[in-house]
Please model this.
Amino acid sequence: MTAPSTAASRRPGVGRLLVVLLGTLAALTAVGVALLWPSGEAPRTGVVAVDVEYVTGTIVSSTVSRCGGENEDRLPDGSIPDSVPCTLVEAEVPTSAEPTGSVEVWAPSTVHPDDATPGTRVVLARYLETASEPEVWAWQDFERTVPLGALAALYAVVVVAVAGMRGVRALVGLAFAFAVIAVFVLPALLRGEDSVAVGLVGSAAIMFVVLYLAHGFSHRTSTALLGTLAGLGVTAALGVAAATAARLNGISTEETYRLAMLTGQLDGDALRGVFLAGTILAGLGVLNDVTITQASAVWELRAADPDASWRSLFRGGMRIGRDHIASTVYTIAFAYTGAALPVLLLLMVYRLPLVQTLGSGEFAEEIARTAVGSIGLVLAIPLTTLIAALVVTAGPPPARHAVPAGHVHGHSHGHVHGPGPGHAAG
Model:
């Protein structure tokens, strides 16, 4: 006979409602991608177009000498030294790029001579000859394809070795996510589309594919997806409110100011939108982590106690969720702190008052981004847990694992009856 509490907890309509909600959100996401899809030419910027090629070469030799000091060599007391060490590098380049097969360039003052050793691969900029200017070669950067490629390959190997095919699917999902950002999000932002809409639509498109690809199609995954999308909505709404209240215009660093100048958007509205879109995207990873973990926790609690009510499952899931909240809040805060470490050191050098430091543009953005992302994350945990508890109790209880013969209550001959068609689970 079926336990009354289990029968009463079944709500078949909950599962169908979940499918309808996600189907509607998927359709809205598809419509949003179609409406916001970047088309036509990108807006022209104030950058002067020059004929430049980037050529990979190999250092043959390097010579250290003395050069006149520049503004970038300014000392802590504000003075510019008369001379500073400088490194002249001879690099071998493809013969198609230079008849002689080698060129000489000055390395930046930030490049230590020990780093510019023979055999080091570097990227050089070749400014082509024009009617008024001769051909010029300049140092661009070190060539890092091999070490970074090796590191990425090691990461992929470790993921696949530990997670198996699920790790492979997760890596495919990661590649898809970066493709969405490169093909849709960034071009749409450059073309002046609504930044919050672009961030939400792009993030939703990523989550729909990544979650189902990595975890498969199930009510458990759908529950985590719905919780993730709800958390993204909360993050977007709070981000808009925080940016407006704190008057965050998105122009707080040299990079964002340069972007504003090059795109002709110094009014701050566009850069504020970039800040908001970045806030939404920044929360994707941790938000996805906590929602899938909470959904899995509720399903495991249900498997351990098939007769548990949704209220009992919610309470049990939240006991796990509170521990998760404590750890993930630290994760977000330390991630932003690590990224902003040079700024922290610079502010320590400036010795500004603490209140003024925290209220400065770049610091204010990081505080707002951390707080908004953390609030969205924290609220997504009880919401996901509640949805999971309602969904998992809407269906039939899972079968209990078989118990050893000597431990079966009510049977004396050691025969274990599984929950067949005519038996109640548990």
